[in-house]
Amino acid sequence: MPILVMKFGGTSVANIDRIQRAAKRVAVEVAKGYDVIVVVSAMSGETNKLVGYVSETSPLYDAREYDAVVASGENVTAGLMALRLQEMDIPARSWQGWQVPVRTTSAHSQARIEEIPTGNILRKFAEGMRVAVVAGFQGVSPEGRITTLGRGGSDTTAVAFAAAFGAERCDIYTDVDGVYTTDPRICDKARKLDRIAFEEMLELASLGAKVLQTRSVELAMRFGVRLRVLSSFEDNGETAGTLVCAEEDIVESNVVAGVAYSRDEAKMTLISVADRPGVASAIFGPLAEAGVNVDMIVQNISEDGRTDMTFSCPTDQVLRAEKAMQAAKESGAINFQELVADKGVAKVSVVGIGMRSHAGVAAQMFKALAAEGINIKVITTSEIKISVLIDRKYMELAVQALHDTFGLERAA
Ligand code: ADP
Ligand code: ASP
Ligand code: MG
Q: Does residue 238 surpass a pLDDT of 80?
């Protein structure tokens, strides 16, 4: 029988009633003749609560134990979903990551899936089971420890299963009815896209649009998974939601496809570091070892052989970054006067494959921000995106201004 993967996010399994509603959607696909792999997230708010417990207990936690704690939210919903389906007389059972097993790297809290053996689940399907309910977000390391795939990782679990099982489609059920030109929660002019190219979705996701985890888009692109995002609250026809697909399958598109933001950024400046070969490596080496995800980097002009080095990282990694830099200073590897952390910034980005062949997008972006009196602190660009770091208090205004200036409320 053909296989379908259906993933339900946190708000779609937030309570028993919602789990029941999701189970009904699964039943519809089972009735059509699919064997279904259901991937579930933890109930909404649950993972945040578990992360809070960990940070409260141990601020610079051991990531292996972090994973042991935060993976547990998905275990609950997987079991409940299987129970609900059984109540509906649909043969179903749950699998935790290690039981499948979802084999991952041992990069705890941001592990990558390496392999999903299909034998166990296929055998059960052959014996008449109709639904395999899989706990999203989790796997097992080569050392046999529980791992997690980074926040939002259930999307990646779903796409990886779709690839491994050759599923006909991977449907991501969430609390919005598709991918929009920007987050509809902060811009009411946001427009739902019927289709979006893998490359654009990849950039939007990595720049903060949390509707899909970046890695899930990467995998879908690599393995040609038919990936659809749709609402678990509305009635969906065959063409509902947004299809994430190859660039060639999109007829018309705007130069800028969407605007993304990332709220919890910090801007860190090392004041007065030596401007000589090897300094960048002496700074960013220890940061990488400490698990700090450095994003933007700017080195200021040099005076008297000294310069300021600015980088951005997520706000919850500021403590790690400070410790790593202090340790590097004490060991004599680097020398700086002061490390200034500004935790009040956000990153706003515009994305579009049309930017490859269209000049002037950056100028238009900066003009729109200037018109709102928004100061730009750091800029980075790539072939299909431009990002700026600004004061967090202007983030929503910036998103709305950029959405307007690039005319995103209208289709191309
Ligand atoms: P789930 O719990 O189902 O995984 P998430 O909260 O992770 O859901 O992702 C869905 C949310 O992503 C939406 O509620 C929306 O606020 C946000 N979002 C951000 N950018 C976009 C976008 N461009 N299109 C749609 N949703 C977006
Ligand atoms: N529950 C995890 C999180 O909140 C994974 C997911 O929902 O995708 O990040
Ligand atoms: Mg999510």
A: no
